[in-house]
């Protein structure tokens, strides 16, 4: 952070390390310094193209006209996934909030919103292609593997690091990214 004072990425990385360790005072201090320096963290954004139209989603974005339909679908999908053994890994919800809130926060990740929208608005069996401006978190990676298997869909996600092709419950990256 001392070498790159104007790059918010280093502050976010340090904040995430402290959050993973449960050191919320340090997280709060770093987040305050981001604001004090006038820096902005790049928000997570994902988009999916369908029918020559691009649909964009932001993390925890609730102003989409399709938000309630997507959330209802995500709740239904969560019940199915739970029966198949999926449990949200809340260690990737790097906020000092209750466990239930952490699960809800993970459900609001932009790639999940885009994938759910694609599942709702395309015919069964249609492959999905989603782009994301940041790296996919490990929980969303696991969630997408389960989704590809349960919904019998091929889901291609291009994140900031690589392409992930999810098919039948596995990913082309071999769970390394």
UniProtKB/TrEMBL annotation:
GO molecular function: RNA binding; zinc ion binding
Organism: Linum tenue
Protein family per UniProt: Belongs to the PPR family. PCMP-H subfamily.
Domain of life per record: Eukaryota
Signal sequence, renumbered to the chain: none
Entry-linked InterPro entries: DYW_dom, E_motif, PPR_At4g14850-like_plant
Biological-process GO terms, alphabetical: RNA modification
Domain DYW: residue ranges: 85-177
Record's protein name: DYW domain-containing protein
Lineage of origin: Eukaryota, Viridiplantae, Streptophyta, Embryophyta, Tracheophyta
Pfam families: DYW_deaminase, E_motif
């Amino acid at each position: 952070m001392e070498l790159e004072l104007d790059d918010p990425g280093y502050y976010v990385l340090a904040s995430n390390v402290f959050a993973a360790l449960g050191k919320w005072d340090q997280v709060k201090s770093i987040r305050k310094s981001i604001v004090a320096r006038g820096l902005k963290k790049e928000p997570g954004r994902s988009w999916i193209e369908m029918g020559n139209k691009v649909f964009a989603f932001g993390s925890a974005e609730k102003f989409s006209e399709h938000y309630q339909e997507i959330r209802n679908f995500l709740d239904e999908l969560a019940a199915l996934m739970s029966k198949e053994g999926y449990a949200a890994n809340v260690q990737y919800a790097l906020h000092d909030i209750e466990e239930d809130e952490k699960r809800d926060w993970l459900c609001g990740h932009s790639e999940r919103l885009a994938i759910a929208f694609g599942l709702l608005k395309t015919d069964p069996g249609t492959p999905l292609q989603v782009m994301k401006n940041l790296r996919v978190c490990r929980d969303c990676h696991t969630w997408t593997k389960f989704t590809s298997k349960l919904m019998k869909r091929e889901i291609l996600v291009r994140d900031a690091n690589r392409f992930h092709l999810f098919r039948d419950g596995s990913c082309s990256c071999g769970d390394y990214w």
